Amino acid sequence: MNNKLVDKYGRQLNYLRLSVTDRCNFRCYYCMPEEGINFARRQDLLSFDEMLLLSDVFCRLGVSKIRITGGEPFVRNGIMPFLKKLSSTHGLNEITVTSNGTLSDKYQAQLKQMGISKINISLDSLSRDRFMQITRRDDFENVYAGIFKLLDNGFRVKLNCVVAEHKNIQDIIPFIELTRNHALSVRFLEEMPFNGSDGSQVLSDWNYRRIQEYITAHYAEITPLINEDSSTSVNYKIPGYAGSFGIIPSFSRTFCGTCNRIRLSATGELRTCLYGPPAANLRDILRSGATIEEVEKCIIGAVSTREANGFDAEAASNGATHTSMSVLGG
């Protein structure tokens, strides 16, 4: 069927980011305070049955790709049976997962069996000490070893690195060097203001231009790659290297004009933009006894009022951009 999720600017939304939990076993400084956040009560989370039903609705409306996010998806009990059922959803062509890499190791065989072969690992440093400072957890060796197990088992792996001054600038070039002999895709992200604090944090001034200039100064030749229209990253590779790297202007938001994403939080909040306020709560609508047709109408209505870009969406949220990324789902 034709995609019914088309906003007033003609952009088709065919990519759902589905958060299955707001909980995480890390405490990364850019995501939540060290003491954590007020996590949702179990009864306030969408059940797996509700997620399956809503995923089916989204796919009937034209979604063909779902990325599973959190929090950390693998900390939620029952995640693997859910993914197995999700993989049989009609119209769903691809499931991908974003993880911190601590718990996915033991699930690799099951994921491959389901046809889930693309994994994004959040990794902000190749130094154990810096890793611990950023995540507030001493688990670097486990995560790092797990990346190569994924590669050895045939997974397509992307590493997501949030760049910030006084945190991990010295890791940028080592990350690129990691692509010399390994078919990894490394993505450098601008820091975003979603860390669950009071909003008073000072953001890094390492924007995508500065990251690019830093990399260019270290390499004589960099080959631009062709990017998909809906890509959030501008991608490159060093000639002769097995892998590639990209830069995501996540705070500068230069990719808004082709964004094809819609987000559903673990508690049912529907967002048509990461920077915008929730457009509806599908959990509440479902639990009120709404029909599938009413749920579809709500989703289509939310998409129809989608803002032109992340800056307009942020303005509509009245500046409430300090919500934890663990709650938003990334």
How would you describe this structure to a colleague?
- With about 325 residues, the protein is of the alpha/beta class.
- The protein has a single domain, classed as Aldolase class I (TIM Barrel).
- Helix content is about 30%, strand content about 15%.
- The protein is built from eleven helices and twelve strands.
- It has a twelve-stranded mixed sheet.
- α1 (about 50-60) packs parallel to α2 (about 80-85).
- Its cofactor is [4Fe-4S] cluster.
Secondary-structure element sequence? Answer: EHEHEHEHHEHEHEEEEEEHHHH
What oligomeric state do these chains adopt? single chain
Structurally, the number of domains stands at 1
Helix share, percent: 25-40%
Main pleated-sheet profile: 12 strands, mixed
